[in-house]
Amino acid sequence: MARDFRYGGQAVMEGVMMRGQKTSATAVRRPNGEVVVNSKPLPRLYTGRLRQTPFVRGIIVLIESIILGINSLFYSANIALEEEGEDVSGGSTWVILGLSFALSISLFFVAPLFLAKLFDPYIDSSIIFHLIEGGIRLVIFLVFLRLISLMPDIKRTFAYHGAEHKTINAYENGVDLDAKTIQKYSTSHTRCGTAFLLAVLVIAILVFALVGRHAVWLMVLSRILLIPVIAAMGYEATQFGARHMNNVLVRAIMAPGMWLQSFTTREPDEKQVEVALTALNEVLATDQQTAEQAPAEVAT
To answer: Which has the closest alpha carbon to 76: 279, 232, 236, 217?
Structure first.
């Protein structure tokens, strides 16, 4: 099968979600050891022309990642916790997620601004101010990743993240897909969301420096409103890097993002790789079936 389409996904609770050309598939291992798969068609917004339009696609990918990620997380949590009789759903869960997003924006975009403002009496240069703000943002991000990586449940999710990367790396190298072969590949990947987040944090320094220093309320507002713009730029930068990893300079620029993945991935066991492979095989089978049916549909 052609390797033109860039498959990818994300780790969920005791499983992996893979995104295909027209569908997404979430594979989760039940407490009894059985692997179950939930496959869903993707909305047209995620597959249409806008999804291929430079800079616009970055915003759509951000929306897609959030929505697909949340839905897959709900599904995986309900499967993983079914023996305990728990159910993860309902309005209260969405409220918690909303609060989580608000906390993330406050922690990574607003808090660094106020901490940088403490240096105001000693700084005249707008560029220096935004470099300090960006440095604080990066430190907060690294400390946050380090702390959550110590949590046992997160460690397992990070192992599934590693399994997802290994599986995609093996697929893109055109090898036979089995758990033992996949295990030989790296847990890092050029298009990883972790590398994307790092790109966003670096680009934010440049964008906010262009905004300049203004009243605090205006700077806070700019940090919130410009997130989609920065995300779009970060997506394009990450995709460009992934396409040109044979270039020495590009590899050097991408190196910090590849290194940072050591915080968010772990070496998976073969059972975790089998789950990631199950999810990938599901979307591959659907895409192949769609490709085979396409000529017949055109003829009618």
So the answer is: 279
CA distance 216 to 218: 5
The domain spans of the chain are 8-284
- pLDDT tens profile 139-170: 999 999 999 999 988 999 999 999 999 999 99
Residues 28 and 75 sit within 8 Å (Cβ to Cβ): yes
For residues 44, 47, 50 and 54, what is the CA-based torsion angle, rounded to 10 degrees?
Answer: 160
90: three-class secondary structure by DSSP: coil
CA dihedral over 176, 177, 180, 184, signed as positive or negative: positive
Cα separation, 60 vs 183, in Å, equals: 32
Neighbours of 54 (CB within 10 A): 10
Q: Which phi-psi region, left, alpha or beta, contains residue 174 (left: φ > 0; alpha: ψ -120 to 50)?
A: left
Q: What pLDDT shows up at residue 293?
A: 76
Structure token pair of residue 242: 């992934």
Given a contact cutoff of 8 angstroms between Cβ atoms, the answer to whether 18 and 279 are in contact is yes
- Chain segment 115-144, per-residue pLDDT in tens: 999 998 899 899 999 999 999 999 999 999
Residue environment code for 159-193, b if the CB has 16+ CB neighbours within 10 A, otherwise e: bbbbbbbbbbbbbeeeeeeebeebbebebbbbbbb
At 225-283, the pLDDT tens digits run 999 999 999 999 999 999 999 999 999 999 999 999 999 999 999 999 999 999 999 99
CA–CA dist 297, 274 (Å, integer) = 34
Question: What is the model's pTM?
Answer: 0.90
Name the amino acid, one letter, at 223.
Answer: R
Residue 241 CA from chain centroid, whole number = 16
Neighbours of 51 (CB within 10 A): 15
- Given pLDDT bands bounded at 50, 70 and 90, which one contains residue 79? confident
d(CA 255, CA 188): 11
